[in-house]
Specification:
Blueprint lengths: L12 H10 L13 E6 L5 H12 L3 E5 L1 H4 L7 H11 E7 L3 H10 L4 E3 L7 H15 L6 E5 L4 H13 L2 E5 L8 H9 L4 E4 L2 H5 L4 E4 L11 H7 L7 H4 L7 E4 L11 H4 L6 H24 L1
Parallel strand pairs: 1-2, 1-3, 3-4, 5-6, 5-8, 6-7, 8-9
Helix pairs in contact: 1-13, 2-13, 4-5, 6-7, 6-13, 7-8
Bound molecules: phosphoric acid mono(formamide)ester (CP) and norvaline.
């Protein structure tokens, strides 16, 4: 141990393929029996908290969810001291944080694996569930096209890198000023991603197998909400835009969604929407990941 997961490219393509296989193992070995897992949250969560808690329980472990006021990372004590303390008791530390630097700091001091459960930069557990959903739909990755319409945020970054690792083309359409930073683009291209960016959603979505979007204002950007609503006008994934995608296409969204903003209610609820499969896959993919990192230790 440690086997930290701070961004999806902490895993190789073959490890991701193995995690996808492990996500479907029935009656999984109880690799976390008598072990604890500390799950720290600086921000709200529905899917991540519940899917992680249940995945840990399904592997025989005991999750302890910790709210921000209980530990006060960097306020009551430093991130490093929080990690040193929690790794005395727990086989795993999960953390949902505002600043990505916090998961870096936790990981430098922890003797247990640290899993990023969402930072301002990345959301690797979401990307694993997204890949599992794409795999279940198409049975293949190579040559598929994922088109993301919206803000080049944490979810988009991890998804883009995940796609590149698995041979999926990744396109993004975003308004001026809401694209990836140079270093993000370097990280995305660095894993060999076939990547393109445009300000024209129609161009990005044409012929895509997956049309993906996420909220325009992420947690921590609430005060920018009004400006963002105006800046993203014309970027809603509605029926007219979605129709341009491939015949076999599906719609994906990490959730929570804001119907009428980044996506229309009709697309969210359409027969091509896979949002609930994705949400359920958060648990299966998390369990697959935990099996992957803990099974060797138990052998
Ligand atoms: N997709 C996702 O991470 O959802 P939560 O914010 O509800 O955990
Ligand atoms: N980009 C969103 C994802 C929520 C799961 C956020 O960071 O708030």
């Amino acid at each position: 141990m440690p086997n930290h997961l701070l961004e999806i490219d902490d895993l190789s393509a073959s490890e991701i393929a193995e995690i996808i296989r492990l996500s479907n193992v029935e009656n999984p070995p109880q690799v976390l029996r008598n072990k604890g897992a500390a799950l720290l949250f600086e921000k709200p969560s529905n899917r991540t908290r519940n899917s992680m808690e249940m995945a840990i329980i399904q592997l025989g472990g005991h999750p302890i969810t910790i709210r921000p006021d209980e530990v006060g990372i960097g306020e009551r004590e430093s991130a490093e001291d929080v990690a040193r303390t929690l790794s005395c008791y727990h086989a795993l530390i999960g953390a949902r944080v505002f600043a990505h630097a916090t998961v870096d700091e936790l990981s430098t001091a922890s003797t247990s694996p640290v899993v990023n459960m969402l930072s301002d930069k990345s959301h690797p557990l979401q990307a694993l569930a997204d890949l599992l959903t794409i795999w279940e739909e198409f049975g293949t990755f190579e040559g598929r096209i994922v088109s993301y319409v919206g803000d080049a945020n944490n979810v988009a970054r991890s998804l883009a890198i995940a796609c590149g690792l698995m041979g999926i083309e990744f396109r993004i359409a975003h308004p001026n000023g809401y694209g990836f930073s140079e270093s993000d683009e370097e990280a995305i291209r660095g894993v060999g991603t076939q990547f393109s960016a445009t300000q024209n959603p129609r161009e990005a979505v044409g012929g895509a197998n997956v049309v993906y979007t996420d909220v325009w204002a992420s947690m921590g950007q609430e005060e920018e909400r009004e400006k963002r609503l105006a800046d993203f006008e014309g970027y809603t994934v509605d029926d007219k835009l979605f129709e341009l995608s491939s015949e076999d296409s599906i719609f994906m969204h990490c959730l929570p969604a804001h119907p009428g903003e980044e996506v229309s209610r009709s697309v969210l609820d359409s027969g091509k929407s896979r949002i609930w499969e994705q949400a359920e896959n958060r648990m299966h993919a998390a369990r697959g990941f935990l099996l992957h990192i803990f099974q060797e230790e138990n052998q």
